[in-house]
Write a structure and sequence with these properties.
Helix content: 55-70%
Bound molecules: BIS(adenosine)-5'-pentaphosphate, magnesium ion
CATH topology: Rossmann fold
Strand content: 5-15%
Shape: globular
Number of strands: 5
Number of helices: 9
Radius of gyration: 16 Å
CATH class: Alpha Beta
Largest sheet: 5 strands, parallel
CATH superfamily: P-loop containing nucleotide triphosphate hydrolases
């Protein structure tokens, strides 16, 4: 399975990813986690990432595209992966499409987790990551609306988009996702 998670900060991408990677036994490619690790290790990318993340702003596309495309070439990605937090801009989505076309391995689905903004704010307030301060959350939400939301249309046009009600309990959200992925993998099962 090759899956992309779209959704605003706090939508539950990380929470659902943990369940999906166990269920499908595929690697979890979470750009936020990769960048936080790079920052901890004080690598060149990590040093650049730190200021962007602290401000709730997206890193330049070229850095992220290079990071992800290198990761996608590693052997554990041969049988699929779950992308959490990438792509987040149109240039990132186009770069991913070029990679997928060259490797002859299309995406199975793009899962859009939909959650109302007041609920997102409550969830993030209760979590307490470094970038969960109110002014940074506000900036992350603006970034989502302006730079990432256009991907909904991009993937709808490709016939890949699957909207998910992310307001339900984690178990109910996971159930919805599994039903959708089963239907995509085996379209005749419901007829
Ligand atoms: P990233 O780490 O990807 O953060 P994000 O997208 O802002 O999303 P979060 O991780 O905060 O939310 P989530 O959807 O994973 O929710 P979670 O499951 O944790 O990115 C961080 C930064 O890195 C960016 O701001 C940017 O600077 C940089 N970056 C990353 N990717 C980039 C890219 N491609 N290009 C450029 N820059 C990039 O859940 C949140 C909380 O809600 C948890 O406490 C959880 O327990 C709770 N919860 C989850 N589901 C439910 C539920 N169903 N009901 C009740 N509570 C729930
Ligand atoms: Mg996350």
């Amino acid at each position: 399975m090759r899956i992309v998670f779209l959704g605003p900060p706090g939508a539950g991408k990380g929470t659902q990813s943990q369940r999906l990677i166990q269920h499908f036994r595929i690697p979890h490619l979470a750009t936020g986690d990769m960048l936080r690790e790079a920052t901890r290790q004080n690598t060149a990318v990590g040093r650049v990432a730190h200021d962007y993340m602290a401000a709730g702003r997206l890193l330049p596309d070229s850095i992220i595209i290079d990071l992800v495309c290198r990761r996608l070439k590693e052997p554990d990605c041969l049988n699929g992966y779950l992308l959490d937090g990438f792509p987040r801009t149109l240039p990132q989505a186009e770069a991913l499409d070029r990679f997928l076309t060259e490797s002859g391995s299309p995406l199975d689905a793009v899962l859009e987790l939909k959650v109302d903004e007041d609920v997102l704010l409550q969830r993030l307030a209760g979590r307490g990551r470094d970038d969960d301060r109110p002014e940074v959350i506000r900036q992350r939400l603006i970034g989502y609306r302006e730079q990432t939301k256009p991907l909904v249309e991009y993937y709808t046009t490709q016939g890949k988009l699957e909207p998910i009600d992310g307001m339900a309990t984690p178990d109910a959200v996971f159930e919805q996702i599994c039903d959708i992925l089963d239907r995509r993998r085996n379209p005749s099962s419901l007829t």
